[in-house]
Amino acid sequence: MATFFVSRLKSERDTSPIASGPQETPPMYELNGLSGEWLPLLLTYTNPKHLNSVTKSITGMAKTEMEAKLFYRKPLVVFVLGGPGSGKGTQCPKIVEHFGFRHLCAGDLLQAEIESESENGKMIQNFKKEGKIVPSEITVKLLQQAMQQSDNKRFIIDGFPRNEENRAAFENIVRIKPEFVLFFDCPEEELTKRILNRNQVTLLHILVAESLPMHLFTTFSVFLKGRVDDNIETIGKRLKVYFETTLPVINYYNSKGKVQKIDAQRSIKEVFEDVKSVFAKLRPVARVGSTK
Ligand SMILES: Nc1ncnc2c1ncn2[C@@H]1O[C@H](COP(=O)(O)OP(=O)(O)O)[C@@H](O)[C@H]1O
Ligand SMILES: Nc1ccn([C@@H]2O[C@H](COP(=O)(O)OP(=O)(O)O)[C@@H](O)[C@H]2O)c(=O)n1
């Protein structure tokens, strides 16, 4: 049976476009449960673009012929959670700058979808206005696409997972568990104050822009559009959603020992000092996504 399996893999390799793909990238695949003789065959599949089809075809064969499982180096993911206004968007660019992660903000990806006037754009806009969580399949697809398009394999994913459905969908579709969850803990009163302030700053910018000549105003207003959800009514709804649906997700990860809690009430600089000490402990390249 082993010989047959090897020959199937060989013929798959010989006819697959992957075999002729670039070979200089480091090996991405590891086999678990198969003897070493299988490894070199599989290490020739090094083009990440073909990952899905190769994974499918190899595991497809393996399922019928032996209980083999294919593993590959999955990206390292850190979820960044905290109430609206807790400072996620302020701290993430600093993490990028200091630790070389790619920052993916779920809210920004959804906003880009609204602005692209895609099929789902209007629906997403309505969820956002109401402070509701957009259906997970949409958000997870956007995150997955962004991850696949990135050369970076270390991601901080900000504002996700916002509820249990988000969490389960990511695990089922992307099949990656977070290395840890960075949690910006901040009291409700402070969150409200900060979000209202964020919108006032934007409104002030728009007033300034309105006093400018038309062509400058048009340019400015594109950059300084206020958020549809930073008003007192929607803020109340967003906070309710946060306490009712996001905190349980944070508690879930806490029960798994995965939460790194940061006191987000202090100054931006002090908060980042704590963030730095959490990331400094991170191993350089993590191997995630095994059976753990
Ligand atoms: N530690 C902090 N102290 C005071 N204000 C802060 C702090 N962190 C962020 N802010 C301000 O609070 C507002 C919300 O921060 P932001 O990073 O956009 O939050 P989030 O992305 O979590 O919604 C912004 O106007 C930001 O400048
Ligand atoms: N995982 C997510 C993240 C954001 N969103 C939507 O996007 C809105 C804004 O999220 P955001 O992360 O940009 O902003 P904050 O609420 O953190 O300030 C949320 O209120 C939701 O309507 C979502 O539906 N699902």
UniProtKB/TrEMBL annotation:
CDD domains: ADK
Keyword ATP-binding: yes
GO CC terms, sorted: cytoplasm; nucleus
Cofactor binding note of this UniProt entry: Binds 1 Mg(2+) ion per monomer.
Any one GO BP annotation for this protein: pyrimidine nucleotide biosynthetic process
Binding-site positions, ATP: G85, S86, G87, K88, G89, T90, R198, R266
Subcellular location: Cytoplasm; Nucleus
Main localization (coarse): cytoplasm
PANTHER family (UniProt xref): NUCLEOTIDE KINASE (PTHR23359)
Subunit structure: Monomer.
Annotated function: Catalyzes the phosphorylation of pyrimidine nucleoside monophosphates at the expense of ATP. Plays an important role in de novo pyrimidine nucleotide biosynthesis. Has preference for UMP and CMP as phosphate acceptors.
Protein family membership: Belongs to the adenylate kinase family. UMP-CMP kinase subfamily.
Protein name in the entry: UMP-CMP kinase
